[in-house]
Design a protein that fits this description.
Blueprint lengths: L1 E2 L2 H15 L3 H5 E2 L2 E8 L2 E6 H6 L13 E6 L5 E3 L4 H4 L6 E4 L1 H8 L4 E2 L3 E4 L8 E6 L4 E7 L3 H6 L5 E8 L2 H9 L1
Parallel strand pairs: 7-10
Antiparallel strand pairs: 1-3, 2-3, 3-4, 4-5, 5-6, 7-9, 8-12, 10-11, 11-12
């Protein structure tokens, strides 16, 4: 495990800022200690600095993971956020979308959110902005990007896509099914 380079850190923070805005600072300087980002086998981990220091005794070859995997770098050196980052970004999200109970299952199966399934949306959400998708019971289901702004959603046709799917909590089950 090694610290992120400046270019890697810039890509990670830009991606996180797409969803949580200026709250990125709150991820590093927390009230319960300092947290850091570390890279291992093209995956980025978010871990407490005290736990990271305790793990320096483990050989690199024996090391699998540490902390929470928030994403990975692709072969083209782009950063892709994983669903495991949902617990970190959901409480800090700047823009949120709530889906109706009838659209929850569709979203969890990997489909985009249509206007007919939209329950609520944060006021003033711009187009192509990163959003966290919630159920009407305030349970985070995943995240995506808005296809329409809040104003455009009001005038949209019920079959129009309003949120592009990027990741959801059902990925674990779908990925497990393809591995076996």
């Amino acid at each position: 495990m090694r610290p992120l380079t400046d270019d890697e850190a810039k890509l990670v923070f830009e991606k996180l800022a797409k969803y949580i805005g200026e709250n990125v600072k709150m991820l590093v300087d927390r009230t319960d200690g300092v947290y850091v980002f570390r890279l291992n086998k093209e995956r980025v981990y978010y871990v407490s600095e005290t736990i990271m220091k305790l793990c320096t005794n483990v050989a690199r070859d024996n090391f699998i993971s540490l902390g929470t995997c928030i994403g990975k770098f692709t072969k083209t050196k782009k950063f892709k956020l994983h669903i495991t980052a949902l617990d970190l970004i959901a409480p800090l999200a700047k823009y949120k979308v709530w889906v109706k109970p009838s659209a929850e299952q569709s979203f969890i199966y990997g489909n985009h959110v249509q206007k007919a399934g939209l329950g609520r949306i944060t006021e003033g959400t711009p187009q192509y902005q990163g959003v966290v998708v919630y159920s009407m019971n305030d349970l985070p289901l995943g995240f995506g990007a808005t296809a329409k702004s809040t104003q455009d959603c009001r005038r949209a046709d019920p079959s129009t896509i309003v949120v592009f799917h990027q990741a959801d909590t059902g990925e674990y089950l779908r990925n497990e099914d393809t591995l076996t």
